[in-house]
Amino acid sequence: MRLCTLLPAACLLLPPRLLAAQAAPVADAIYVNARIWTGDSAAPAAEALAVREGRLLAVGSDERVRALAGASTRVVDLGGKRVVPGFIDAHWHLPTQSRADLVGARSVREIVRRLERWAARLPRGAWVEGRGWTPSDFPQNAAHKQYLDAAFPDRPVFIIDRDGHQALANSVALRMARVTAATKDPAQGVIERGPGGVPTGLLKENASGLVSRLIPPPGRADIARRIHEETQAAASHGITMVQEASRRAPSGAVFEVLAAAAQADTMQLRWYVSVPFVPNATRAQLARYVQLAQQFRGPWLRYGIAKGMLDGTVDAQTAAMLEPYANTDATGLPFWPAASLDRGVARYDSAGLQVELHAIGDRAVRMALDAYAHARRVNGARDSRHRVEHVEVPHPRDLPRFRQLGVIASTQAIFATPDVTTLTNYAPLLGPERAALSNNFKQFDDAGAVQAFGSDYPVFPMDVIRGIYTAVTRMTPEGTPKGGWYPAGRISVEAALRHYTRDAAYAAFMEQETGTLRAGMLADFVVLSEDLFTVPPEQLLRVRVERTVVGGRETYTASQPAGALLDRQ
Prior knowledge:
Elements: H1 3-6, H2 16-23, E1 29-32, E2 35-37, E3 45-46, E4 48-52, E5 55-60, H3 62-66, E6 74-77, E7 82-85, E8 87-92, E9 100-101, H4 108-119, E10 128-133, H5 146-151, E11 157-161, E12 166-169, H6 171-177, E13 189-193, E14 199-205, H7 209-212, H8 220-236, E15 239-244, H9 252-264, E16 270-276, H10 283-295, E17 301-309, H11 338-350, E18 354-359, H12 362-379, E19 387-390, H13 399-405, E20 408-412, H14 420-430, H15 432-435, H16 441-446, E21 451-454, H17 464-473, H18 493-500, H19 502-507, E22 525-528, E23 545-550, E24 553-557
Parallel strand pairs: 1-6, 2-7, 8-15, 9-10, 10-11, 15-16, 16-17, 17-18, 18-19, 19-20, 20-21
Antiparallel strand pairs: 1-4, 2-3, 4-5, 7-22, 11-12, 12-14, 13-14, 22-23, 23-24
């Protein structure tokens, strides 16, 4: 015990230098010989940092930080490596169902091959599930049950597309779900049909629930395993916090596992978890959501945000547009009437809840902004930080409204990847004028909006370095097209880093806790193999995460054995 604790009066007799040394706290760990980008405009660079009890004790020069070391302090020499604040994924989903990986299949033959390999691992008669296909994987961009029926005539098959907004079921699955030509489209859903109204197997938006409701859910042990695996994968990408946007009800296995881990203080990843937004939520539901926000306000698990859906996706032609898709009369599928949406947002806002609305098409984006403006008129202005998720195709006239209303643009950097689906399905559906402005991150920065980056995992990989590369180059990982797809939308490395750190923390009301590196903040940071600021933009993908630290806990080091889930996805 310290002298000043035992004999306070004696401290008055000590020389000032000795008194200061006696009172100085000792770091649990110090990290020295680094090039630190703090994200703090007041002190943007540093050489070292000290950690004590999960927070940053000091950020500054090597000399200053080394002075905080004691006999038990762990000293880590980072060899001049670049250090940045921990990455925050502002739009992330926890996948709970085990499925065949169909990402990058590029053909029906490959989809079937992967499904057959997956099915061979399953019990006889079990559902065969997959996720990750895109329209360009099928002839004429048209998914159809015939391709699944040929390979699986006797087993139910259900595969979800990359975006999660449409699914393909084979004939066995449709029969089990009693989906026939006589089945009506459900609310907010579309059953694609062929001659005579016979379902093709393609189910858009809520129509997929006609079949998916029959698939057995995973148990609690499976959920706990998936959370552990996804936490490891996130750490390998330098992610220290996820903002989970799955809008699950606050009950069941996911809620229980997370709450128990928070209570036991065993978490390795910070979570900000959404509850459902529905315009007609009851008073009891809203009261429950408010109670959760008050109960879970710790540094590891938080509630207080509600996720709602306004439209679908461009690839499925369900994103709500002001003008029709190219070469068609379709304008998408808005999920709620504007009046209902306005009332619902105002009720959540009045309860003090943050609202995040999935809105991809320009019509849906405008509806979201109108609803937030309505809530401000009804309830008065406050620091609500409501959000629009994805904002892929905003109308240029609506861009200034983000700053005016204090609304956050929650965008996904990797969405600007000009892959085959983007070039052959997405962009042609929009037409060149709208495609030129889609997933254009510079336009939000120029409009003064707060922009938070995420991945929408598992729609796209939670690879932050790849996200930064995409935002900076607007090229595929293979480097095409040369010069970037609509390069006017490119942003700088520093801007991309800010959106993955400080701005993403602000989007979760945590900018005073994390997102920057300064004394008193949570000790969340990442050590990189190379300097993002000096690597040529087209070579950013060679940068690797070498160490991830969350609250002083080292959750990943590159020297650890890396299994499949720790590899770059």
